[in-house]
Every structure is written in C-alpha cells, then in structure tokens.
Amino acid sequence: MAAKKGAKKAAKKGGAKKSGGAKKAAKGGAKKSAAKKPAKKAAKRTPNAAFMKPMQPSAALGAVVGNNPMPRTEVTKKLWGYIKKNNLQDPKERRMIVADDKMKPVFGGKGRVSMFEMTKLVNKHLK
Q1: Tell me, what's the pLDDT at 3?
Q2: Is residue 56 a contact partner of residue 103, using CB atoms and an 8 Å limit?
Q3: Mind giving me the DSSP string for 82-113?
Q4: pLDDT at 2 (0 to 100)
Q5: 124 secondary structure, DSSP code
Q6: What percent of the chain is helix, strand and coil (3-state, nearest 5)?
Q7: Which residue ranges make up each domain of the chain?
Q8: Number of alpha carbons in the 13 Å side-chain half-sphere of residue 63
Q9: Contact yes or no for 95/87 (Cβ under 8 A)
Q10: Are 64 and 78 in contact (CB under 8 A)?
Q11: Can you name the CATH fold of 72-127?
C-alpha cells in the first residue's frame, strides 16, 4: 500500500518533469542531426586587384607615408602606424583622429576626423 502512495507521488512530480524531458530529448535530437552534416571547407580568398594596384600619394600624404607608389592597403597601414606612433587618437573617443601639422593638409584642414571619414579623405590624395 505504501508503494502505491509513493508511486502516485512520483507520478505527480514526474508529470511535470516528463514534459521537460521530452523537450530536452527533442532539442538533443536536433543537435545530433546538425552535428552529422559535414563541415564546409573555407575557400581561400583572393585579394581584390584594385586594392593591390600601386598608387601615387600626393605631396601632403607623401609627407606622412612616403612618396613611393604603394597599394591602398600599405597606405592605410603606414597611416595607422603614424597615428599610433604619434598618439593621435582621441583618448576618450578612440575612433576620432586628432590631426597634427603633417596630417591637417591630408584631412582637408580639419583638426579632428573619424577613422571612417579619414579613409574617404585619404583616397582623394591617391592617384
């Protein structure tokens, strides 16, 4: 008789757990089917030829990065090297660049530009 009462209590408590267990089983089944799919191999990216084409910097930009023709990617790397070396990032708002005397002509006379605006202004100095 005591076993019957225990079974009834377990059935009452287990009723709520069973629905949770069914959900877990359904979720587990979804995970297993997803795991069976073969992983796709990442294709190696080829660089865009337009970015790799050597471009001549203007005299104003040449004072910062050098006067030799170089790809846009190199210009950007050298520009960021100059910015980091001379501590030209705004300490509070890191995406803003504070221009020094060499950078003002490149930035069109502006004293402070965002890093996104900087790339637009630098492109005007490349031919």
Answers
A1: 62
A2: no
A3: HHHHTT-B-SSSTTEEE--TTTTTTTTT-SEE
A4: 59
A5: T
A6: 55, 10, 40
A7: 72-127
A8: 9
A9: no
A10: yes
A11: MDM2 (1.10.245)
CB distance 101 to 85 below 8 Å: no
User: Mind listing the pLDDT tens digit for each residue in 20-47?
Assistant: 555 555 555 555 555 566 666 667 878 7
pTM above 0.85, yes or no: no
Predicted local distance difference test score (pLDDT) of residue 53: 92
Whether residue 55 contacts residue 72, with contact meaning beta carbons closer than 8 Å, is answered with: yes
Rg, the chain, Cα only: 31
Report residues of the chain scoring pLDDT below 70. 1-42
Rounded to the nearest angstrom, the gap between the alpha carbon of residue 92 and the centroid of all alpha carbons in its chain is 21
